[in-house]
Amino acid sequence: MNAAEVFDTLGLEYQRAWSHQPALHGTLAWFAATQPSGSRVLDIGCGTGVPVARTLAKAGMKVTGLDVSPVMVDIASAQVPDASFHKIDIRDFESPPGSWDVICAVFSLLQMTQAEIIRTLGQISTWLRPGGHFFLATVAVDVEQVTLPWMGQEIQVSSFSEENFEAHLGEVGLRVVRRSRPVFTPSYPGAMPEESLHLVCQRP
């Protein structure tokens, strides 16, 4: 199944399983405390809009969410009326240079190839204003298009190790300013603890 089909099927089940991650809420609280009201936020792979878009919109930021799943876009629009949501693949998205203060990609780059991830990181760096921040949450492992069972679905995943992610981010001009490797057990039957990688980067 492609990403749109997977997340169309999961809908709110995904939110119930994953939205209460303490480390994720901690990083969003940091953004809410440090970024001015009115900051322009791009939420890549926004899902149901909870918690990323909802938290940052409540803090007074102007949030735009993008997702490939029309079901997710509909749910997000209903749950976070203070933000705007659009059905589009980030690989097809265009934005002027320097047009965003904050860009978030919370587990949304995993269902690309490694080459597409690198290309997207380059675009993100261009889209950020100087001094702007990029928040990446992902799984830190060097894999290319590995098929995995996940929440009753089959998904194809690509990613990089922390060291390689940091190298690719550096190559596109993004500097890591906060990092953590939180472990979280999602709320669905048979779920095991999973370690993720959270990097907050800044464009100098």
TrEMBL record:
A Pfam family annotated for this UniProt entry: Methyltransf_23
The entry's keywords: Methyltransferase, Transferase
InterPro entries found in the cross-reference section: SAM-dependent_MTases_sf
BP GO terms, sorted: methylation
Recorded GO MF terms: methyltransferase activity
PANTHER family linked: TRANS-ACONITATE 2-METHYLTRANSFERASE, TRANS-ACONITATE 2-METHYLTRANSFERASE-RELATED
Protein name: Methyltransferase domain-containing protein
Organism: Lentzea flaviverrucosa
